């Protein structure tokens, strides 16, 4: 049973690991292959700061809220394991700031210690009159992706540096199931007008005195178009750009100025921070995550495709819940192919 | 008295901040800081510099609270300015956890730090051996940076720094009009204060930049305080011990206790071991005194004995001491004009 995974960002690697962990013991012939033209540190996931935080509103998409929760709970359980450091996983607290009162988010009971900001805390952030404080998690792509890659390599999963131009290319070669984790470029494999870039730009600085994330919100300009500061284990990420429909991966001087000026205004101490790098990336934005099976006829052969793309700016936040869901879809494919007598129960 | 000459003894956080306050309240004063040690060799350099007050048994609580509040307000303004990184001041959030519920659930300083509240059940799950906890946000001083920043500001006012060992305050009476005693543990010898005693503290400074929260056991013995470049792991409270030599067995014990609070510390690198003697007293001595010898008077302002709480109250006590220096100057001017009659 050969499975081809397209994409080696956080979605591709974690889905592959989840499937291998759950099914390798039950399907001894299981062979997983990962195809991608970009590997860490050159994927979209590597550019993200790595903060676990969903968008403010789930737009009634309860399924995504559950996947977010599954991811948080899974990561929280890993926090005290020896692997945590290597995974780039650690607890972090911080502030969400608003210029007016807003309803509590869907994730208020998922994170730890969620509460409103006190008046004295708001005094630290002139211009903001309302906000939240909570403890969440950081999962840094630059550590997590190599960690996933190591786990997969140990399990005998093969990696191929190749740009896949069509599903047929992999299914024709004798692959039984294709796992489509192609992120931003899923539209090249199968047109999807709902998938659009949400362009972001970030400045990486050295500011080790910053111990909290600070995310501001401007409800008029939309998510991530307002300054944010996210401290990692080595660098601090400054951001605040979200341009829907912009495919450019070039750094823009205008965006640089916006990020720098607005973040320094928010945290005057940043004026002395040393800039280390700048990066632009495309969030694979979609009205909802596409996580579903599709039976295709490619050439003359039937092929099963599991789509798992369109995670926008919350890929890391939702990845494990989606990986588990993709694994369940894989399980149902195996059942249909009579590869399994009964579907596997939930993994403890 | 056109330009009173003030000698400040001691170049730790108390000496330097007191000297700075004096230049602020008395711009006409000429201030000299005298010490046998300067940063990075003072007791303050070893301290983590967390703004979590120590309670002095014999100082009225309202006075301690006032000192803490002034210090918190002063440092908060710096942390929110472009000078924050140079001064080494930053906010940090975290948890104080208790194995059994403390008698006093609301410490006197709970309304001065930010966002103080009891921990939720979900938060306490991270600490299986502890049953109660408090979450809050406070400030931390990266000590060597802060001392250097204070020195820089002092020099900008024209104040002098002088490496000098003084064995007796009277050595200074011919050169200075007022002596300010911020000698910390040195006051034991300098003024013979037998109420002052060392409480030895050993700490580790480690590289573990993924640790973003402080964690403190309510017993005050085990703590993890993340600074700008290193995390301070502690500690010990050895009353009466004068030893400045690091003890390897103690280092191992501190590391183990901290790892049981925060398992990821197993991956910490670049471990340095440091020792400091907290200059401890039942109450902080912030007091005026006029010494008298052979008809000669020497006004002295004492500001020492801050024990485990130096950083938490430093600015408040410095303000008080500077105010007392002002009173000494008025007294000197009063008596000199009387002398003219």
Describe the protein in words.
The complex is a heterodimer of chains A (348) and B (341). With 348 residues, chain A is an alpha/beta fold. In chain A, helix 1 packs parallel to helix 6 (141-154) and helix 1 packs across helix 10. The two termini of chain A are 25 Å apart. Chain A has helices at residues 10-23, 44-47, 62-78, 84-87, 119-122, 141-154, 167-171, 186-189, 253-266, 315-336; strands at residues 2-6, 31-36, 89-98, 112-116, 130-139, 158-161, 177-180, 196-206, 213-216, 228-231, 236-239, 243-244, 274-285, 290-298, 301-309. Chain A has a domain at 1-50 and 140-193 and 287-347: 3-Layer(aba) Sandwich (Rossmann fold), CATH 3.40.50.720. Chain A is globular, with a radius of gyration of 20 Å. Chain B has one domain (5-339): Rossmann fold, CATH 3.40.50. In chain B, helix 1 packs parallel to helix 6.
Q: Residue ranges of chain A: pLDDT <50 for 5 or more in a row?
A: none
Order of helices and strands of chain B: EHEHHHEEHEHEEHEEEEEHEEEH
Mean pLDDT of chain A: 95
CATH class group of the domain at 1-50 and 140-193 and 287-347 in chain A: Alpha Beta
> What's the main sheet of chain A like?
9 strands, mixed
Q: Can you identify the CATH superfamily of the domain at 1-50 and 140-193 and 287-347 in chain A?
A: NAD(P)-binding Rossmann-like Domain
Outline of chain B? elongated
Distance between the termini of chain A: 25 Å
- Assign an overall shape of chain A: globular
Could you say what the CATH topology of chain B is called?
Answer: Rossmann fold
Percentage of residues in strands of chain B? 25-35%
- The count of helical stretches of chain B stands at 9
SSE sequence of chain A, one letter per element: EHEHHHEEHEHEHEHEEEEEHEEEH
Compute the CA-based radius of gyration of chain A.
20 Å
Q: How many domain modules of chain B? A: 1
Question: And the CATH topology of the domain at 1-50 and 140-193 and 287-347 in chain A?
Answer: Rossmann fold
Largest interface: A-B, 35 and 38 residues
Structural class by sheet pairing and helices of chain B: alpha/beta
- Low-confidence blocks of residues of chain B: none
